[in-house]
Specification:
Layout (H helix, E strand, L loop, with lengths): L10 E6 L19 E2 L2 E2 H12 L3 E6 L3 H8 L2 E2 L2 E7 L5 H12 L6 E5 L2 E2 L4 H10 L4 E7 L10 E2 L5 E3 L7 E9 L1 H9 L7 H12 L2 E5 L5 E2 L3 H14 L1
Parallel strand pairs: 1-4, 1-7, 4-6, 9-13
Antiparallel strand pairs: 2-3, 5-6, 7-12, 8-14, 9-12, 10-11
Helix pairs in contact: 3-5, 3-6
Amino acid sequence: MKMSFDLSSLNVLILAGGLGTRLRSVIRDVPKPMAPVAGRPFIEHQLRFLASAGFKSVVIALGYRGDVIKQHFKKDFMGIQIDYSSEATPLGTGGAIINAVKAKRLDGNLVVLNGDTFFPISIESMMLDHIKNSADVTLAIFRDKSCGRYSGLCLDDKMKVLDSDADTSDYKSAGIYIFSHNIVGLLRSKELKKISFEEDIGPKLISNYNVYGYAESAPFIDIGIPEDFGKAQTLLRRWQ
């Protein structure tokens, strides 16, 4: 019998506070997640993906020009209830997660997505893997043979993550995470300050907790630099 999981019971957080400095040559003065891609703000593609998967509520972590995002989506989009957490000064990806968990009193399992990447996988299958592995953290991964700008992940034969800075590995983080309730509690207890999840929090979680990778064949889309922003226009039109 095939297992299933009700995604509507999960908390979801989208990190949408990026400055988009490297995109200034190709987009107007809007927050990076609102950059127009394939006829829609980029973050709208993410919300449509979450709605189609069955999610019912999302918290969006706002930063630079967060008012633009708030005014565009308000409190509801395609049946998803939207709430917002805001930061007075830039907190980094780690600080944004801690701030949202504290401010919105998030509890239980938490799905986190980066607001400038898109990876249309089955989050239900990812959650079932998370449960099967008794994981504390599960991160979606994609394969990229180029050295590029993504750090490699070292995995064992059961997909447990051993290292997040393996230069020779083809496996890269795709910017979707599932945190179990104990990790959410750990994040809530941390001091609120500017901190990177990828550089500061993630490596410590890998060293001290059960962190697993989840791989699925899907197009990985990143709008962080002008070249990738241009590629995203075509890739997301195909996905729609």
